[in-house]
Design brief:
mainly alpha; three-stranded mixed β-sheet; 3 strands; Phage_Mu_Gp48; Phage portal protein
Length: about 190
């Protein structure tokens, strides 16, 4: 066996299809490795292009999704917020219902959301249960919700915060908890 190793997985695969008498040929190995590298690049480009057809994996194709849905492209926003905006816009078509509003809100938040529709009060209340505090892209969510909700209904948003009861259950004082210097995600894992 030659000491020439393959840098390309597909080059090694191509070489495996050749007759055994090419096994020691550096020229054929180099040729197979070069062709394999081109095939690797082709397959990577094909996979990257395929990813653009799905909102959850789109990167450079996200602009096309936004243009199709009439969403202004803001490249300063994190890509996950842009994806959630597109996804919620896709979910927010058709007859408006509580489950539809919940799906749209969850697309933004990524956590559990509760929706309460009070027809007598002409009000829709969206409560963020799975996320502590105010979601990062709340303004985008508000814009989409205004587009899909019935015109005669008002929207109200409620948020979940750390409570004293949770501190009591953790058997920590506020000063002790503050000294831990935890992020919200770390606190979620830390608390009992």
């Amino acid at each position: 066996m030659s000491d020439t190793t393959f840098t390309s997985p597909r080059g090694a695969e191509l070489f495996s299809y050749l007759p055994a008498y090419y096994e020691f040929s550096r020229v054929i190995r180099a040729d197979g490795d070069a062709k394999g590298a081109e095939m690797d690049a082709l397959y990577a480009a094909l996979n990257e292009t395929l990813e653009q057809f799905f909102v959850k994996t789109a990167t450079w194709g996200l602009e096309r999704w936004e243009a199709e849905l009439g969403i202004p492209t803001d490249k300063n926003k994190p890509i996950d917020q842009r994806r959630s905006y597109v996804e919620s816009k896709l979910r927010g078509s058709g007859k408006v219902s509580g489950s539809m509003i919940k799906n749209v809100a969850q697309a933004y938040d990524g956590g559990e959301v509760s929706v309460l529709i009070s027809p007598g009060e002409y009000k829709i209340t969206v409560t963020f249960i799975g996320t502590r505090g105010i979601p990062a892209n709340l303004e985008d969510l508000k814009a989409v919700m205004e587009e899909i909700k019935p015109a005669h209904m008002s929207l109200e948003y409620k948020f979940t915060y750390l409570t004293w009861d949770e501190l009591d259950k953790a058997k920590k004082s506020w000063d002790q908890t503050d000294a831990l210097n935890l992020t919200w995600d770390e606190w979620e894992k830390y608390r009992p």
